Amino acid sequence: MLNIIVKTFQEFTTQELYDLLQLRSEVFVVEQNCVYQDIDNKDQNALHVIGFKDNKVVAYTRLFKPGDYFELASIGRVVVAKNERHHKYGYDIMKASIDAIKTYYNETKIKISAQCYLKSFYNNLGFFEVGEQYLEDGIPHVAMIKN
Q1: Would 141 be classed as within a structural domain?
Q2: Which domain holds residue 40?
Q3: CA 41 → CA 47, 63, 68, 69, 121, distances in Å?
């Protein structure tokens, strides 16, 4: 069972911040073999959706209100620990993120920059592709919108 909480950057404990940055680095840098600057000075303006299992961070996203990242509200840094993916926590953390955008930003239209291999995952959550695919940090991505 995933325990999901929403926090601002200022509400993090040092340990929570360390754990979520470790998870992001573990997946986006090491597992995906992608050298890029994950710590990008955008976390301070984001809302953070954190999924805990047995007090360990195993799933995470960050949210932005319209205009802070894209023209629409957005969800990014969607990540689930590799050894927890079989539980389908990606759906849980995304549904919580979509709900949080409605609750905190009063928005229902959301834009994401999705890794192409995850298109069907996002389609299942109501997102559809817009435009051509592009490379972001050497990985094929496509913009997707949920109305």
Answers
A1: no
A2: 3-107
A3: 13, 14, 12, 12, 28
C-alpha separations of 65 from 76, 94, 118, 120 in Å = 12, 16, 23, 25
Q: How many CB atoms sit inside 10 A of residue 127's CB? A: 24
Q: What is the pLDDT along the chain (147 residues), one digit of tens a residue?
A: 899 999 999 999 999 999 999 999 999 999 998 888 899 999 999 999 999 999 999 999 999 999 999 999 999 999 999 999 999 999 999 999 999 999 999 999 999 999 999 999 999 999 999 999 999 988 999 999 999
Please choose, from the candidates 42, 46, 76, the residue with its C-alpha nearest in 3D space to the C-alpha of residue 60.
76
**Assigned token pair, 71:** 């023209």
pTM: 0.95
Flag whether 100 is in a domain: yes
Q: Does a structural domain hold residue 143?
A: no
Amino acid at 58: V
Residue 58 lies in a domain: yes
